[in-house]
Automatic annotation (TrEMBL):
GO terms for cellular component: cytosol. Residues 5-59 form the HTH cro/C1-type domain. Pfam families: HTH_3, Peptidase_M78, ScfRs. Keywords: DNA-binding, Transcription, Transcription regulation. Gene3D superfamilies: lambda repressor-like DNA-binding domains. It comes from Janthinobacterium psychrotolerans. This is HTH cro/C1-type domain-containing protein. Belongs to the short-chain fatty acyl-CoA assimilation regulator (ScfR) family. The keyword DNA-binding applies.
Length: 462
């Protein structure tokens, strides 16, 4: 953490003596912290955040753990590269995190070029006359996910702003009606329902000239409230959202647009499930997702998503990780408030309980799963569906999963009846076949890239 502190100080062109004076400590104490000879205590971290105007979470080990896993995957894809020890990876990430992120960026660009080459080859093979020079754009969603993971899925400024709005609405009409009234009274915006069968693809459409917010009539009450809350965020807190997007330094307009959408949706979830009230309810109900969904008038997936964001420093909830997949194994959402790692390489593990959820619609499934690194987790999974009602109406089906470290599993109602301390009872899973060390796995689809380059005994991961 000392190198990060030194970099922040140098970016602001401050001497050690000047920063030490601002923090109320001696220059020698600051020098020792920058050389990692003294720890950064919580009071010092808070003072650094105030003096340097940074989020203290920039020193979070969660970010380091996630980066180490990501960089390890990148090096695992290079069959001719010499083996790299975990100690070396940790030193790289902890001392030069920006360099580590640049490595990930290079990998992302390499994948784009590889996909482009495959596309050109396919067009040559089939004689296609399409534009073979068209570039494949990198994933903007991935860039936004990385930003949220760096913030541990908690955006303090937006969360507190949403909590204030929720407090203003508290005690009035039911939430959905109160949001509709706020749009009309404060902004002159009327909410109109449109025919869901009329080809309205998006969940909402705002007509700024006529001041009408169009919502499909196929949305549930909770979904309508969510869309109204998201629109309120863009009307009342657009400057805050723009400032957050600007500070994140996204690569282009596409990523910035995706980030604005993600932040407006974050605000909507925080408004419908205000932090303190929701955390208290979650703790009192042992994190029973269905009861929380009923209490706050939202869906199962919305509760799972909100549970993965409860990382307010002075009042943190249980640290969860959240994922959403489809039947083909595509991961459309993934968030981790811990150092749990979703691999970028080789897909996901077919032994993971999230895929069983498609065979048990409506049921909540549980799994105690162990990873190759020895860590064990409790997973909860359920199938969720969205779309217009009606015979043969198009819709979407996903499976969502919520997980936590086994040391915290006893706090969940879903741990009842499970032996959380039996290592033989855990299902051995991995992050993806190409980066999984389990050679004896009966479900392996691809050879492990890591196994192709055995690590010397003195560099083996404990």
């Amino acid at each position: 953490m000392g190198v990060r502190l030194q970099r922040l100080r140098e970016e602001r062109r401050m001497t050690q003596a000047a920063l030490a004076k601002a923090l109320g400590i001696s220059p020698s104490y600051l020098n020792q912290m920058e050389r990692n000879q003294r720890p950064l205590t919580v009071p010092i971290l808070l003072r650094i955040g105030s003096v340097l105007n940074v989020d203290p979470q920039i020193f979070s080990e969660h970010d380091s753990a996630s980066l180490v896993a990501d960089v390890r995957d990148v090096f695992g894809e290079l069959p001719d590269a010499p083996p790299t020890s975990m100690a070396e990876l940790k030193m790289l990430v902890e001392n030069m995190p920006d360099l580590a992120r640049s490595i990930l960026l290079l990998q992302r660009r390499y994948r784009v070029m590889a996909e482009r080459a495959d596309t050109l080859a396919a067009r040559l093979d089939d004689g296609s006359r399409g534009d073979s020079t068209q570039a494949l754009a990198p994933s903007t969603d991935e860039e936004v996910r990385e930003y949220l993971n760096r913030r541990q899925n908690y955006i303090d400024e937006l969360d507190r702003a949403a909590e204030l709005v929720a407090g203003e609405l508290d005690g009035q009409l039911r939430t959905r009606d109160a949001l509709q009234a706020r749009l009309l009274e404060r902004h002159g915006i009327r909410v109109q329902l449109s025919d869901g069968d009329a080809g309205m693809v998006r969940k909402h459409r705002y007509d700024a000239q006529q001041k009408i917010l169009w919502l499909p009539d196929t949305l549930t009450g909770g979904q309508r409230a969510f869309q109204m809350a998201a629109q309120i965020s863009l009307l009342e807190h657009s400057a805050l959202i723009d400032a957050l997007v600007l500070a994140a330094q996204f690569s282009g307009a596409g990523a910035q647009s995706s980030a604005r959408l993600a932040l407006s949706n974050y605000f909507a979830g925080a408004l419908l499930m205000p932090y303190q009230r929701f955390l208290q309810a979650a703790e009192s109900r042992a994190y029973d997702i269905e009861r929380l969904a009923q209490q706050f008038g939202v869906g199962f997936e919305a509760v799972c998503h909100r549970l993965s964001t409860l990382q307010r420093p002075e009042a943190a909830g249980l640290p969860f990780f959240f994922v959403r997949v489809d039947r083909a194994g595509n991961v459309s959402k993934r968030q981790s408030a811990t150092d749990f790692h979703f691999s970028r390489v080789g897909g996901t593990c077919p032994l993971w309980i999230v895929y069983d959820a498609f065979s048990h619609p409506g049921q909540i499934l549980t799994q105690v799963a162990s990873m190759p690194d020895g860590c064990t987790y409790l997973w909860i999974a359920r199938q969720v569906s969205t779309g217009a009602p009606g015979y043969r109406a198009p819709g979407k089906t996903f499976a969502v999963a919520l997980g936590c470290d086994i040391s915290q599993a006893h706090r969940l109602i879903y741990s009842k009846g499970l032996d959380l301390h039996d290592p033989q009872g855990a299902t051995p899973i991995g992050t993806g076949c190409k980066v999984c060390e389990r050679q004896a796995c009966p479900q392996r689809a691809f050879p492990s890239l890591l196994a192709a380059r055995p690590v010397p005994p003195n560099q083996a991961t404990p």
